UniProtKB/TrEMBL annotation:
Name of the protein this chain belongs to: DET1-like protein
GO MF term list: ubiquitin protein ligase binding; ubiquitin-like ligase-substrate adaptor activity
Pfam families: Det1
InterPro entries recorded: De-etiolated_protein_1_Det1 (IPR019138)
């Protein structure tokens, strides 16, 4: 029989056709409030960068990232002395392999950020921040000065993307800064953690001039006028804690008083007084998350990431400790699990399609699958799963944004490790990335990335265009990934 049980069991595959989508959008049959999703976002199912144009000469530039608006591509020169901002015209100009890079990305301006007095300085490869309005760029310079001083000089510069002028600089002498976990930008609030001086510098980037406005320096003092008080109370016979550590010890002591375990605080006081700031990230405009570890962890042979840690939520405007958690705290693990999007992507102020387990169903299923594997296969407990999640905090700065529609797990399915490899900019050599549609469940397209040891894959924020290149060798050729309708001559 033609219409039997097998016919009823057969799943109907939804047809994804651009003509039908255009017809529904023009007739206005989509439900109210779904115009962005049904009238624009769903078209990415039909147009995708499935064709690879290999052998693109990138003129020796180190490709870094697209601006949030998608109108600019930020590059470093091969000497790491200059920043080049290039306009993005459109991927339709990529049909000529000879001058494809110049046609798609004509030069807007190039700024030399290494002056004659800073000879020997180079741009830090992993430090590049762009304000949400795409008007200002923050980069860093590092240089080894005289051997007698034995210092590392980090210079933070700011150049405006409109005319290519250097607006301001913020210099930190005789210092050590970990860019991945110690420099953060959310909106126009910029924070830098000094490991050498145990101080967090809070700066505001002026919207009009692009200059750095010093808001506060938290470490030795909590307010600007604290130095006036401490100068008159100095005693060589007493050990003075920094202002932030004093607040931390006070918060822990009061907690022990409420719990009736002051003896435990006194027993652990020697370890608590040796805590030092190691990592930091901005949570919102007022609160930062700081990870403290013991001073011995910096010199021990074991990995410092496995050392006991104390996580502190600190309000730097009111100089108050919001809360303190230890690494094995189950309550803290549940908080991180429920607020993963705010902790992992605080810089994405307008993220309509988050991909973390907090809001995305596919992300939640992936997280539950990983947790099931850890609990039932490896024999670990639920608290051990939370400890693994907490050990990643504070989350590192994302150098390669993953806010492309093609990386939205609710629309496309791909390898579970793809997002992590894109963020680390280390795709395997000769990698073929396959994408399947979440709507139909059928394969849509695949991307053959460039060859190399450290291959990066940069997606355009809104258009069906991507670039793959080996970031370790600027002279190697790149690959443009465009829709199949673009002819190749």
């Amino acid at each position: 029989m033609m219409y039997g049980a097998e016919w009823l069991r057969k799943r109907r595959v939804k047809i994804v056709h651009v003509a039908q989508m255009l017809r529904k959008r023009e007739l206005g049959v989509n439900p109210p409030g779904t115009n962005f999703l049904r009238g624009a976002y769903e078209f990415y199912q039909c147009i995708h960068p499935g064709k690879a144009l290999h052998g693109i000469d990138r003129k020796g530039f180190v490709l870094k990232r697209f601006s949030p608006c998608g109108r600019y591509l930020i590059c470093f020169t091969s000497t790491y002395h200059s920043v080049s901002v290039r306009n993005y015209t459109t991927f339709t100009h990529a049909h000529n392999n000879v001058n494809a890079f110049e046609d798609v990305f004509p030069e807007r301006f190039t700024v030399n950020v290494v002056s004659g007095a800073e000879e020997g300085s180079v741009l830090m490869r992993d430090c590049l921040f762009i304000t949400p309005d795409s008007r200002h760029i923050i980069v860093a310079l590092e240089s080894l000065v005289s051997e007698t001083a034995a210092t590392l000089l980090d210079v933070y510069r700011n150049n405006e993307s409109l005319d290519g002028s250097i607006c301001d600089r913020y210099q930190m002498n005789v210092d050590r800064v970990w860019v991945a976990h110690g420099v953060h930008l959310v909106g126009r609030l910029f924070a830098v953690l000094s490991l050498q001086h145990q101080t967090i510098h809070f700066l505001h980037i002026d919207e009009r001039t692009g200059r750095f406005i010093i808001l506060n320096r938290v470490g030795r003092h909590l307010y600007d006028d604290d130095d006036l008080v401490s100068m008159g109370l100095h005693d060589d016979d007493q050990v003075t804690f920094t202002g932030l550590k004093q607040r931390l010890l006070t918060a822990l002591y009061r907690r022990c008083v409420r719990a009736g375990c002051v003896d435990q605080f006194l027993h652990m006081f020697g370890q608590l007084r040796s805590l030092r700031m190691w990592q930091m990230q901005i949570i919102d405009s007022d609160v930062v998350l700081i990870r403290f570890v013991q001073e011995d962890a910096f010199t021990s042979g074991t990995s410092i990431s496995m050392a006991p840690a104390v996580f502190v939520f600190y309000n730097w405007r009111t100089a108050q400790i919001v809360n303190v958690f230890e690494r094995n705290s189950q309550q803290f693990g549940m908080i991180v699990e429920r607020c993963l999007e705010e902790l992992k992507h605080p810089e994405m102020l307008d993220n309509r399609f988050p991909c973390t387990a907090q809001y995305c169903q596919q992300g939640a299923l992936l997280y539950e699958r990983i947790k099931f594997f850890l609990v039932h296969i490896t024999g670990e407990s639920g608290s051990e799963t939370h400890r693994r999640l907490v050990s990643q905090l504070p989350f590192s700065t994302t150098l390669a944004p993953t806010n492309s529609p093609y990386l939205d797990p609710s629309m496309f399915s791909y390898d579970d490790r793809l997002l992590a490899t894109i963020e680390r900019m280390r795709l395997p050599d000769k990698e073929v990335v396959k994408f399947h549609s979440r709507v139909t469940g059928l394969p849509l397209f695949q991307m053959s990335v460039s060859r190399g040891r450290y291959v990066q894959l940069l997606f355009h924020p809104s258009e069906p265009f991507a670039i793959s290149a080996d970031r370790s060798h600027p002279n190697t050729r790149a690959t443009f990934h465009v829709p199949p309708l673009i002819p190749q001559t």
